[in-house]
Amino acid sequence: EAGVAQSPRYKIIEKRQSVAFWCNPISGHATLYWYQQILGQGPKLLIQFQNNGVVDDSQLPKDRFSAERLKGVDSTLKIQPAKLEDSAVYLCASSLDRGGTDTQYFGPGTRLTVL
Amino acid sequence: GQQVMQIPQYQHVQEGEDFTTYCNSSTTLSNIQWYKQRPGGHPVFLIQLVKSGEVKKQKRLTFQFGEAKKNSSLHITATQTTDVGTYFCAGYPGNQFYFGTGTSLTVIP
Fold it and tell me: What are the CB-based long-range contacts (under 8 Å, 24+) for A95-98?
């Protein structure tokens, strides 16, 4: 079975620019997660979708970050405008159902550098 | 503040020595998951514990969930160089899913 796909793998932008990341979860997985992992820290959940609805976005900086999962399959995460402190790896994960009881499968991540 | 703490933050061991990381939550967890992240890689699921006092083993790895469901531990017996990486616990100390702060394991051959 194919794993979680993410693109791009790497992105370098200047502060105040915009950037978008794409994630395609494992086929049939209802729940999709976006995490931010700053170097040396654990992943921080930004947003969790179940199908195309938002379950939790309490830690998403909504003034600059947005995410959508329109058809309940793939998802995009956008940052506009980017700040230096947004430099991190953005991880996408998916699980069959609600993550509290299900294994999360992670994609390879997108490493963002903001200059 | 951080909801799920892990100690130690770093651990260097000689190959063949044992290793333990401890995970502590400020509130009761419905369940706890453990992940391993190799350097430059992404988190990979290891195991999930659900019941109070539960103990599970995977070869040289032993996972334990505390009686109060607020803490957990991962013990590796006779470490190998393939055990290198950061070990994270994760769960719901409330309504939000949190990863712990992680323990980075270095194994010296």
Answer: A95/A29, A95/A30, A95/A31, A95/A33, A96/A28, A96/A29, A96/A30, A96/A31, A97/A30, A97/A31, A97/A50, A98/A31, A98/A50, A98/A55
Residue A71: pLDDT over 90 = no
Distance from CA of B93 to the nearest CA of A (A): 11
Give the A-side interface with B, CB within 8 Å: 33, 35, 41-45, 48, 56, 58-59, 91, 93, 99-101, 103-109
Q: What single-letter amino acid sits at A77? A: L
As a whole-number percent, the residues of chain B with pLDDT over 70 amount to 98
What are residue B103's DSSP bridge partners?
A: B87
| Closest chain B residue by Cα to residue A59 | B96
Residue-wise pLDDT tens digits, A24-62: 999 999 999 999 999 999 999 999 999 889 999 999 999
Among A48, A100, A106, the residue with its CB nearest the CB of B43 is A106
| Structure confidence at residue B95 as a pLDDT band (50, 70, 90) | confident
